Fold these 2 entries.
Entry 1:
Amino acid sequence: MSKARSDPLHKSDPIYALFFIIPSVFVIVLIAFWPLAQTFYNSLFKSALMFPQNKIFVGLSNYGALWQDPRFVNDLWNTVRFTGWSVSIETVLGILVALMLNKKFKLRGLVRAAVLVPWAIPTVVSSEMWRWMYNDNYGVINSILMSLHIIKQPIVFLAFPATAMPAIISVDVWKTTPFMILLILAGLQMIPDELYEAARIDGANAWQRFWSVTFPMIRPTIGIALIFRSLDAMRVFDIVFIMTKGAANTETLSVYNQWTLFTRGFITPYFGYGSAMSVMIFLIIGVLAIFYVRMMKIRLD
Amino acid sequence: MKYKNLRKVIFYIGVIIVLLYFLFPFYWAVVSSIRPPEELFSSHPTLIPFHFDFESYVQVFTERPFALNILNSTIVAGSATLLCLVIGSIAAYAIARLKFAGKVGIMILILMVSMFPQVSILGALFQILRSFKLINTYPGLIIPYIALTLPLTVWTLQNFFRDMPHELEEAAYIDGSGKFNTFWRIVLPLAVPGLVATGLLTFIFSWNEFLFALTFEQLPNMYTVPVAISMFTGYYVVPWGQIMAASVIVTAPLVILVLIFQNRIISGMTVGAVKG
C-alpha cells in the first residue's frame, strides 16, 4: 500500500485516463458502433437511400428474404470458395518462402524488399496490373502460353467462371502472400538455434527437423496469420470489383452488398434489404472471429 | 561436394522464381506505360519495348485531374495518419500505464473494430456523413480512416509503452512534472520507432483504401488515387497505357517508402501477431 502511494505511476487516476481515452472511444463509437446500430435499424424497413421519408416498417422480414435470395446464397459460397483457396495457397507459399528467407544468402535483402512491395501498393493498382496481364487480346499471359504452344487460342480469362475465379484468387495470392511470409519469418526467427542443433545431433534429416522442430514452433504464428487473412478474405471487395465487377460467377458478398445499397437501393426500395445483408455479413464474420478466438485460446492453454 | 553444389543451384533457382513472381507485374506495368500505342496493343508484346513513348504520362495529367487526385490522397492519408497517432498514442499510454476502471472493456471495444467488415457500416455511415454534410469532403474520409486504423495503432503502441522502463517517468513525476507533460516530453520522444512503424502502416492503409473512398467521394475532383484509377476504364475504351502510367506513378513513392523503412514496416506488421 505504502509503495503504491509513493509511486505516482501506479496511482489510480480516472480523470487523466478519461481525457486520454475519450478521443479514441469517441471516434470509434461515431464511425463504427453508431453506424452498426443504424444499419440494424435500417434493415427493419423497406426503403430507398434517396427517399428516407418513404420507409415502411417490415420487421425482420428482410432477413428471411435474404436466405430466399439465390444470389446471396451463391455469393456467400463464392466468398467462402475465394477465402478457402486463397488462404490455403498463401499459407503454403508463405511457409516455403519464409523458410527460404530464414537462410543467409546473397540477394536476401533484395528478396525481402521485393516481397514487401506487392503488399504495400493499393489493391486497385495490383488488380489493374493483373487485369492487363490477363487481357485476352494483348495480355502477356496469353502471349506466353501461346508461344509455348500450351494453348492455340487466347483465353478470355475474366469472362468464364472456370478461369475468372482462379484469376482473381491469383491476384490475392500475389498481393497477400507477402503478409504470410513476413509473419511466418518473424516466427521462424524466434526459434533458438539450439533446438536445431539438438535435432541434428539426434540425426534428424531436414524433413524431420521441419516437422519436429520448425512446424510446432511456428504453429501459433501460422494460426494468427490464418485468422487475420481469412477474416480479411471474407470481406474481399477491391479485387473483384476491379477485375470482373462480379461477372462470370465471381461476385462476393461485399460486392453484392455495395451494389444493393448504392445502385439498386439508391432510388428503388432495396436499401433496407441491403442493410439486412450488411448485418448478416457482420454476423457471419463475427461468428467466425469468435470461433477462431476460442480455438486459439484452447491451444494456448 | 557435388551434391552440395546441386542443392545450392536449386536453391538459387527458387530464389529467382520468387523474385520474378513478385517483381514481374511491376516490370510489365512500367514497360507497358512507356510503349507507343501500336506496340502496346499487339497480340505478341515483346519483353523489352522497342520504342519509348511517354505520352501516357502526359495524358494522365492533362486529360484527367490526376494531380488533384494525388493531392487528395496525400492530404487524406497524411491527416489520418497524424491524427490517428495523436489520438491513438494517448489512449495507448493510458491503457499501458494508468489505472482506471473498465480498461479491459475499452480494449475489447477497440479491438472489436478491427474485425468489422467495412461493408457492414457502409450504408449507415454514408447516411451519417451525409447528415453532417461530409460527403465529398476530406474529413468525410479522414475520420473513418482514423477509426479503422486506431485498433492497430493503440494495440501496437500500448505494447511498446509497456516495454519501456518506468524509471524515466518516475523521475519526471518526482521532479513535479504532470501526467500530460511527462507523456509529451519524456515518453513520446522515446516511442518514435513505434510511432514511425504504426504511422507507416496507417498511411499505407489510408493511401490504398478503396471501398469508403469510392462511396464517400463522388466528384472526380475529390477522388483519391485508387478511385481515380478505377474510373479510367470507360464504357467503350480501356486506356491501358494511362492506367499503367498512373499505377507506376503511385507505386513509385510506396516502393521508396518500403526500401527506406523496410525494417520498421515489418516490425509494425508482425509485432501484434507474434507477441499474440
Entry 2:
Amino acid sequence: MQPGALSKALKGGAIWGFIVLELIFFSIAGQFLSLSDTAFMDFDNMLLLLKQSAPIGIIAMGMTIVMVNGNIDLSVGATFAIAAIVLLDSMTWPIFAGLGDWVIPVAWLLALLAGTAFGALNGLIVWKTGVDAFIVTLGSMLGYRGIVFLFNGENPTSHLNWTLVDFAEAEFLGLATASWFLLAVTLGIWLLMTRTVHGRNAYAIGDNREAAVNAGIRVGPHMMINFAIIGFLAALSAVVFYSESGSVNPNDGQLYELWVITAVVLGGTKITGGAGSVIGTFGGVIAIQLLRKGLGHIGADTSTVNLVIGLILIAVLFLDRQLNLKGKEALRI
Amino acid sequence: MVTVSRREIGSMLAKQGILIAFALFMIGFTLANAKFLSVDNVFSVVRSSAILGVMALGVTFVVISGNLDLSVGSMMSFSTIVVLDLHDKIGPALAIPAMFAMTLCLGAFIGFLVGYLRLNSLIVTLGMLSAIHGLTLTYSGGQNMDIADKEGTWFSVFGQGAILGVPTPILMFLSLAALLGLVLAKTPFGRKVYAVGGNGTAATFSGIKRARTVFTCYLISAGCVAVAGLIQASRSLGSQNTVGQGLELEVLAAVILGGASLMGGVGTIFKTVIGVLILGFIQNGLLLLGLPFYFQFVVTWIIIILAVWLDIAAKRGKLWSPIA
C-alpha cells in the first residue's frame, strides 16, 4: 500500500460508512421507538427514499461540478422555481393549444432552456466581470426570486395535465420516474467528470486556476458551461418534481441551495475546489435523505432534523480537517 | 500644474463610487416624487432598515476579518423567540440579559469553531444556520410566540418608542454604528481585525492573536444579532419561528454593497451603513414610483453586481476580466 492510501480510502469511504451506520441505528432504534409496524429497512421504503432524494440529488450533481471547478451557485433554488413556472404556465399558452398532449415535450424543452439560460447568465457574468461566483449568485438568487414573484405575485401557478402526472408517477422496472432521472443524471455527470477533457479541466481549474491558465486551458468557457449545466439540472429537477405535483408556489425551492451544498460537502467535495466526486455526492444526498426519513421514523420532528444535519455538517468538516492535517500546519496559534 | 491621470480619476470614482451612486439615487427619486425626502418617509425607511442594519454592523466585522456569517438570520429568529418567551416567564428586565447571554453563547461557539479550530466559515455557519433553526423550533415547540399582555408592558419601547421624536430603532442603529465604527477605526482591536483579514499569516507573525480576533468578531456579530432580535421582538410583541429566515443573505448583500471584500481586510462601518440605506431607499423609492414590490429584488441584483464589478475593475485598471 502506498503511504496515505489508508487515509484516502478512509475519506472516500467515509460517507458510505456513515450511511451504513445510519441504517443500523435507525433499524435498531425503530424497533423500540417507531409507531409503525414496518421495518425501516423495508425495500419499498428504500425505493421511496431514492425517489424523494431526486429533486435535491439532481441539482447536487450540478453543484458538484461547479464546486470542483472552484465556484459556487446560490441561485439554484430560484432557478428551480423559474423553471417550474415556465413548465406549468407554458402548457396553458394559446399558441400551443392545438398540440394536445404534444405540448408536454414543448413545455419541458422551454423549462429546460430557461434554466440553462439563467445558469449560463451567471456563468457569463462570473467570466466576463471577474466578480466572485459567491457574490454573483448571491445577487442572482435575489434577482431570479424577484422575477418569480413578478410573474404571478404571491399566488401559486397551477396546471394539471393528467398524461404528465401519469408519466411522472409511472414505474419502470420497479423504480419511479424521478429515481431514473436521478440515476441517469448521476451517470451522465460521472462520465462527464471522469471521462472527458472538460471534466479534467474542471478539476485542474479548481485546483489551481493560475496553473490552468498557464497550461493553456480556457478557464472562462469551462466555468460558463458548468454554470449552464447546473442551471439545466435545476430546471430538470423542477420538471421532474412539478410534472407530478402540478402547482408551484413562488417560495418553492427556497433554501434548496443550502440543502444541496450540505449534500455535496458531506460527499467530500472541497469548498475550495479541485477535489470531489459525483459518487461521493450521491452518497451525501442519500445520507441526508436517510437522516430525514430515519428521524421521522423514530418519531423525531423536523426541528431535530435541522439540528442534527447542521451539527453533522460541522462534525464532518472537523473530521476531514483532522484527516488532512498530516503535520503540515506546523503554525500553532 | 497638477495633472490627474485617467487611472487616478477611475480609482477615485471607484473609492467613492458607492457614495456617488447613493447621491444619484436620492436625487433621482426626489425629482420623481417629492414625498421621497420628507421627514416621515426618511424616518420610516431608516426605521424599517434598522433591524437589517444592526445585523450588518456585526457581519461587517466578520467579513473584514476574512470570514462569512450565514447564521445571523436564524440566530435572529432564535433571539426573538427566546426574549418573547422569557418575557412572560421571568419579566422583561431579566429576559433581555438572558437572551443576550444565550445568543452570545451561540456566537462564541461559532467563533470557537472558526477561530480556534480554523474550520471553513462558510460551511460552519451554513451548518449553524440549520442547527440554530432546529434549536429555535425545539425551543418553541413549533408554536408562534406572543406576549400575553401587549398593552401593559414597557418592553415595546425598543421597537415602537421614540425619543425627542426620533424612533428608538433608528437611535439604536445609529448609536451602535457610531460605537462600532469607532471600535473598528480607532482601536488596536480594529487594526487587528483588518490585519487578520488582509493577511492572516503576516498578522500571526506580527504577534497578533488571530484566533482570538476572529472569535471576538463572531461575538460582536452575535451581540448585534441579539440587539436586532430585541428590536424585532419589541416591535411586533409576537413572532413566528422563521422571522429572520433569508435575512443572512440580505445582510451580506448590504455589507458587500458597502464595499467590504469577501477576501477580508477591506470595508468600513460607515460604508456598510450606506449599503443598508441604499437597499432601504431603493426599495422605498421603487414603491413610490409605483413599481411592483418584488421589482426591488431585480434592481438589488443588478446593483450588487455592478458595485462589485466597478470596484474590482478600478483596481485592475481594466473593465473586463482578464480570464481567457
